[in-house]
Every structure is written in C-alpha cells, then in structure tokens.
Amino acid sequence: MNGRRKGALAGAALLGAALLLTGCAKPDRSEIVTWTDEHGRACTGVAVVDSEDSDREVTSIDCDYPPEGRQPGRATSRPLPD
C-alpha cells in the first residue's frame, strides 16, 4: 500500500471517529429564566446551558421596573417551548 493511500485511510478513520463521537454528545439546552436585579427590576432572558459542564450563558436580556405598587415575582427557570 502506498503512502498516499495509507494517509487517506487514516484521515477517513479519524473523520469517522470524530463523527461518531459528535453524534453521541448530548445537545445543549435553552431555558427561559427570570430574576430580579440589584435595582429591583424584573428581568427575563434566555439561558443556553452547556451539556458538558452545565455552564450557562444568558442572552436576550430584557429588564423593566414592575408597575407602581407591585413587586417582581420569584426567580424561575423553565425550558423554552418547542
């Protein structure tokens, strides 16, 4: 077997192994989260939870003061709707 053919077979084997491992990984999940910030504003955001280390990255943050005479509710977290 010549060197070029060996290299191509090795590359194909590595690609196949990478695809197999990638296919087995758990996908990240997204959640809608709410919280009250240090200024008393009610905030909502989308948290992407990393499946490998459970690290969260929050995006699409929207904060607003509650209506006069109202207090923000408790902090919550739930999966995004399908």
TrEMBL record:
<feature type="signal peptide">
    <location>
        <begin position="1"/>
        <end position="25"/>
    </location>
</feature>
<protein>
    <recommendedName>
        <fullName>Lipoprotein</fullName>
    </recommendedName>
</protein>
<keyword id="KW-0732">Signal</keyword>
<feature type="region of interest" description="Disordered">
    <location>
        <begin position="53"/>
        <end position="82"/>
    </location>
</feature>
